[in-house]
Design goal:
Helix content is 69%, strand content 0%. The N and C termini lie far apart (60 Å).
Length: 321
């Protein structure tokens, strides 16, 4: 891109994200013609500085993530023109701006880009932007938006490129929509380890207990990406089935699974002691690391029995080694 185009994209990014002061400073000299998309986007933001400040202060004190106000139609059309235009760099910048905006209607042009087909870099940028919007709830801001977004993300989770599948799975995991769950569980069977791991992380973040059996099956195959998610979803009843895998699966995978489970605040301390003893019986550095990390995770003034047991097991392990 030329100097003017770079300046216009910088102004676009700031305007879409609400940074009016930066938008005004970023505009090139001479300013872009009002007929250019970037100018059409930046100009309204420069006139809305006080209101943007009030929104920013309100957002900082709100612990519940919600979509930002919808972008004005003219501004959304301007960024859509850049997103779908011929300039690759401008398109990537537009996707980034839309994702950072958190706006309730920011997903619309991104879904349009993906539905129409795009190059791998553009698709990756759009998927990453949708993932950011999902964190704010913008992907389900309306039934129509939720349906359109789900359909395109569901499609991309089956893309032939593992990288795009992983990005689509990550974005889908942020959707506050139950329709995402079956697809995420299906991706636990993906051929690519990073896609499986991302699907597992998404399901664990959503506390989808129904994914636990599939994750256990992956741990039985010594899949390292399933260890953390299974630890977060495992019920007390499932723990003995995990522990009895000792000797039949990778020791590091099992140590990580049990070690992460022990860190959970909802686990009864008596059960933690049993879990830590199982970890201590495993060979290898991963088991030692799991014990060290558990001790470090417990507050210094907390003298719970499991912490004392972990220290004792660690000392005994050091003597043997």
């Amino acid at each position: 891109m030329g100097v003017k185009a770079v300046g216009a994209c910088a102004a676009l990014f700031a305007a879409v994200c609400g940074g009016a002061a930066f938008a005004a400073a970023a505009e090139p000299s001479p300013s872009p013609s009002p007929s250019q998309p970037a100018a059409a986007v930046a100009a309204p933001a420069a006139n809305a500085k006080p209101r943007a400040g009030r929104k920013a202060r309100g957002a900082s004190t709100d612990v519940t993530k919600r979509p930002a106000a919808a972008l004005p139609a003219a501004r959304l059309d301007a960024v859509r023109a850049l997103l779908l235009g011929d300039d690759d760099a401008a398109s990537l910048e537009a996707a980034t701006a839309l994702g950072a905006s958190g706006a309730a209607n920011a997903a619309e042009p991104l879904v349009e880009l993906l539905a129409g087909g795009a190059s791998a870099p553009r698709s990756a940028a759009a998927l990453d932007a949708l993932a950011k919007l999902g964190d704010t709830g913008a992907l389900t801001s309306s039934p129509a938006t939720a349906t359109a977004t789900f359909e395109v993300l569901d499609l991309y989770t089956g893309n032939r490129t593992p990288d795009l599948r992983q990005r689509a799975v990550k974005a889908l995991g942020t959707m506050r929509d139950a329709r995402a769950v079956p697809t995420l569980i299906a991706r636990l069977g993906d051929a690519a380890p990073n896609v499986r791991a991302t699907a597992g992380e998404a399901l664990a973040a959503r506390h989808e207990l129904k994914a636990a059996p599939r994750l256990l099956a992956l741990v039985k195959k010594s899949d390292p990406g399933a260890a953390g998610p299974l630890a977060l979803l495992a019920t007390p009843e499932l723990v003995p089935h995990i522990a009895e895998l000792a000797g039949s699966v990778d020791d590091g995978v099992l140590a990580t699974t049990l070690g992460e489970y022990a860190k959970r605040p909802d686990v009864p301390d008596k059960l933690r002691v049993d879990v830590l003893r199982t970890v201590a019986n495993l060979p290898g550095a991963a088991a030692t690391t799991a014990l060290i990390e558990y001790i470090a995770a417990v507050p210094a003034k907390d003298d719970r029995p499991s912490k004392k047991e972990a220290q004792k097991l660690l000392d005994e392990r050091g003597t043997k080694e």
